[in-house]
Prior knowledge:
The protein has 319 residues and is of the alpha+beta class.
Amino acid sequence: xxxxxxxxxxxxxxxxxxxxxxxxxxxxxxxxxxxxxxxxxxxxxxxxxxxxxxxxxxxxxxxxxxxxxxxxxxxxxxxxxxxxxxxxxxxxxxxxxxxxxxxxxxxxxxxxxxxxxxxxxxxxxxxxxxxxxxxxxxxxxxxxxxxxxxxxxxxxxxxxxxxxxxxxxxxxxxxxxxxxxxxxxxxxxxxxxxxxxxxxxxxxxxxxxxxxxxxxxxxxxxxxxxxxxxxxxxxxxxxxxxxxxxxxxxxxxxxxxxxxxxxxxxxxxxxxxxxxxxxxxxxxxxxxxxxxxxxxxxxxxxxxxxxxxxxxxxxxxxx
Length: 319
Ligand code: BT5
């Protein structure tokens, strides 16, 4: 009931709704409505109450509200099931736990992650309420060798969405970062479970610094947030809805036609590395090379200092 009332207040945000109207609509007493309003206020929602006019939601707290998010969602499969946690160790870890029984497209979101992970066991800082820390569970019938293409689809979707929904000019640093002015605003971690020739499920973890104002000392020089870049607060729900829509479009195109062409068009257009000389870290080795192209499989073709050309499947590239 409380969720239903909240949804009504949210849809008609700023407008007064009388206790009588709400009690008729939801078939409960006016006292029950009043009690639910008090609970919502305790949770942090600013609800103005006047005797004559009724209730009015003045501002939603900065929390992600599932109902409000669903109202903005324009997808068929991705995000039809959303699980939201106030605090979770890692949305990728949680997704792994539930993946077997979860439906394709399930999205797991954490307001904070206490053990957010980057690649190779690195940490991903995920402070409460400041970013988008989410994972998408996918169950495609594709060979495991194709799995990493999901990272590219996610990178293209995030890049497009932050341009559209936040007005921030992000660039894709192959294969899994979105950068703004050379600083990292988003990182992607794709994990897979399955056998040699069959994927059981894929988890695409997306971490975006949205409203962070500052960062821990260790990476404050290499990280930024959308708010820092734009100079204003960004609504996380709108951005999530936009990312999921872009993701579904690119993912479905890839599944239907088995081509990454639409994704690659975005990746090439907004590439932070194409044509640049980059440092490439391969295990213990560090090499320098010029990026010649991102091929149709999404691999990075580089020309090393000795003139040799090499195709990179994944790895570390820094500008
Ligand atoms: C990544 O790793 O960029 C992948 C990050 C994926 C995070 C998402 S959040 C939802 C889901 N659940 C998880 O547990 N993870 C995923 P990598 O390329 O290895 O970058 C990690 C490095 O980035 C760290 O070693 C730090 O230097 C830096 N870093 C950590 N937190 C950061 C942040 N919030 N913003 C920018 N840089 C950060």
